[in-house]
Amino acid sequence: MILNDINFETYHKNYPDKDGYFGKYGGSYLPPELVAPMHEINDAYMTICKSSKFVNELRRIRKEFQGRPTPITHLERLSTKIGGAQIYVKREDLNHTGAHKLNHCMGEGLLAKYMGKKKLIAETGAGQHGVALATAAAFFGLECDIYMGTVDIKKQAPNVARMKILGARVIEVTHGLQTLKEAVDAAFDAYCLEYKDSIYCIGSVLGPHPFPSMVRDFQSVIGVEARAQFLEMTGELPDAVVACVGGGSNAMGIFSGFLNDPVELFGVEPLGRGTKLGDHAASLMYGTEGVMHGFNSIMLKDENGDPAPVYSIASGLDYPSSGPEHSFLMEKGRVKYDAICDEESIDAFFELSRMEGIIPAIESSHALAYGIKLAKTMNKGSILVNLSGRGDKDLAHVIECYGFRDGEK
Ligand SMILES: Cc1ncc(COP(=O)(O)O)c(C=O)c1O
Fold this sequence. Notes:
The protein is of the alpha/beta class. It folds into two domains: 21-63 and 101-211, Rossmann fold, CATH 3.40.50.1100; 67-98 and 220-402, Rossmann fold, CATH 3.40.50. It has helices at 11-14, 32-48, 52-64, 76-82, 101-115, 128-140, 150-155, 157-165, 180-194, 211-234, 249-255, 283-286, 324-331, 342-356, 362-376, 395-402; strands at residues 2-3, 6-7, 21-22, 25-26, 72-74, 86-91, 119-124, 143-149, 169-173, 198-200, 240-244, 264-272, 288-292, 295-299, 335-341, 382-387. Strands 5-6-16-11-12-15 form a six-stranded mixed β-sheet, with helices on both faces. A hairpin with a 2-residue loop joins strand 3 (21-22) and strand 4 (25-26).
């Protein structure tokens, strides 16, 4: 497929370029002390990702430890109720630890092991990346420090407990809004001091080169599996693929399998409480170009040009920017982006739970809510939604804020 001068048949060979740019987005904007460590990670990854030993080891881990491939489920009852397109979900909630995050964490952990590092450092929002990284650290016998904002620690208590049980240190970040952006700041600062023996494992397709492409590569297992599975199940490709976008890793993972196909791709951002700055985290829809956390992308800025405060009920989506590849694919028109508010995501959360027996993560509920909306506009056809994670971590918060939706608290 060729669209706006981009040949998607050869896309993965050409993007990003050697400096980590997707068009004008991406790159590496770093304090001088981090330039050499990032080069070290890039060089190691570029060498290792081509070695059959690394590739085969990761394949074995995916099958024997993660439980991959995850299935695709046809939501028959929900689709019949909607009466439009058929909805299918790719079940990343069934990936070990309950979300897609483990796909890149096992890759990053294996890379750290090959590089002789002793510790994994990262931030987490919803706690899924933290749990996944703590799992990888335990599996590979590495230390693990996870930075997490006070607000998220309260909202995602079960995941905090899981990280600690897995042997990670959870370090509370008490400044600013005490959510994901501040956690990234703190993890970066820690890495600046500890880069010799540790590796920074970014939780999404964000940060300086090589993280946006490296995390995408590790997550592309979702798209590769999903494409083959969908063809086998239905004999054709879906008409549309939908995924939620926080930093954008689950979306890039599934989109990468369909970029060269005649399949519409939709990224769904969190509209939170509304369109006012501070009430949402729909950075691609309402943001402008800027540099943050070492990369150039589209971001939400305050009146001083600094990252704006953001909000979403979904801790994993409330980040003021998105991965550079998303900005590029939006600019080129290959992926369309839209947003879903808190209430709509909660409706989808209960709908999937009660119609299909699957409790989704609130992040994934954003994608499902959009899939349901889209299905209603189509008389026929099929939509594949990436169900990026399961909702166990969200139960207490949802019940506290919304009750059980049947008149009983
Ligand atoms: C279940 C789930 N889905 C989606 C996300 C958003 O991350 P990304 O946009 O990188 O997929 C998160 C982040 O924590 C998550 O836990």
